[in-house]
Amino acid sequence: MTKKVVVTRQIKEEHLKQLKEKFEVFMWDSAGDPMPKEKFLEEMEDADAALTMLSEKVDAEMFGTAKNLKVVSNLAVGFDNIDLDAAAENGVTITNTPEVLTETTAELAFTLMLTSARRIIEANRELERGDWTGWSPYHMAGTDVYGKTVGIFGMGAIGAAFARRLKGFDCRVIYHNRSESKYAADLDAELVSFDELLEQSDFVLCAAPLTDETKYKFDKEAFNKMQPHAHFINIGRGAHVVEADLKEAVESGEIAAAALDVFDGEPISKDHPFIGMDNMTLLPHIGSASVATRDNMVQLCVDNITRVLEGEQPLTEVK
Ligand code: DGY
């Protein structure tokens, strides 16, 4: 019997075609709107594979419904939307998309850091409001990244790609991981405790995976330990941060600014408490969003699904 693949968001014809040549495919025909949960569960009932996004909850309920399921291929390096224990109990292989998105995501992290340091959003808003009255010595004066101490929470592949870029800015790089990172030696980056990272950094980047250990790690206590001129940048997951504590830290001047690509509960609405704050740079989760990288991510998902359904080892399995 032809195997069935569920694709939960619109993908390009060139990728879809590869799946259709071998399998029956149900694709949710919207690029923007996620597949409603009921429809997802209904389509998964007889599915052998799924190409999912981080917006899908791949949970015990789904695994209970999808009796034929062999592989879930998640279009992200993160997989906090997937219940890995339930996957293992049901014998389902999980794959993600590491490596292909590393440089693109590091570039976005760097963009956020520079944008925050040089008050780009605030300056642009002023100009667009028609409030620019002319040049003056300290008008919109920001801070330099050059020569500063940058602390990376989560020195994995993306953290390391970010650190490599810092070399050109003559920065001191410190990082916090559970243990020494395999990337650190080449980068001249120093492993420090979480408190040292907070206390010494001029810029703190969160690039860690979301786990029970890292969830809500950036709370009131953490922001208290940061320097008043420090900037906090998050490209990990929104749930690394207690958002109310971050708002208070930025408002009270405990830290200078924050630049965020991710939020605890996405998408956020225009009523979100961060909206409109001058020292907040906010982006709608576009870390890996270059066309070439998204093409590579989708292709990797297609390859992983095809390999598992044809009895081969996937290329990038989440262990
Ligand atoms: C990931 O890969 O986990 C990103 O957050 C998606 O862009």
Describe this structure in words.
With 319 residues, this protein is of the alpha/beta class. The protein has 2 domains: 4-98 and 291-309, NAD(P)-binding Rossmann-like Domain (Rossmann fold, 3-Layer(aba) Sandwich), CATH 3.40.50.720; 102-282, Rossmann fold, CATH 3.40.50. It is 34% helix and 14% strand. The protein is built from 12 helices and 12 strands. The protein has helices at residues 13-20, 37-44, 60-65, 84-89, 102-117, 120-129, 157-166, 184-187, 194-200, 220-225, 243-252, 291-309; strands spanning 4-7, 24-27, 49-52, 71-74, 93-95, 149-153, 172-176, 190-191, 203-206, 231-234, 257-260, 280-282. The strands form 2 sheets. Strands 8-7-6-9-10-11-12 form a 7-stranded parallel sheet, sandwiched between helices. The protein has a 5-stranded parallel sheet with strand order 2-1-3-4-5, with helices on both faces. Strand 6 (149-153), helix 7 and strand 7 (172-176) form a beta-alpha-beta unit. The two termini are 29 Å apart. The chain binds (2R)-2,3-dihydroxypropanoic acid (DGY). The site of (2R)-2,3-dihydroxypropanoic acid has 7 residues, from loops. This is D-lactate dehydrogenase.
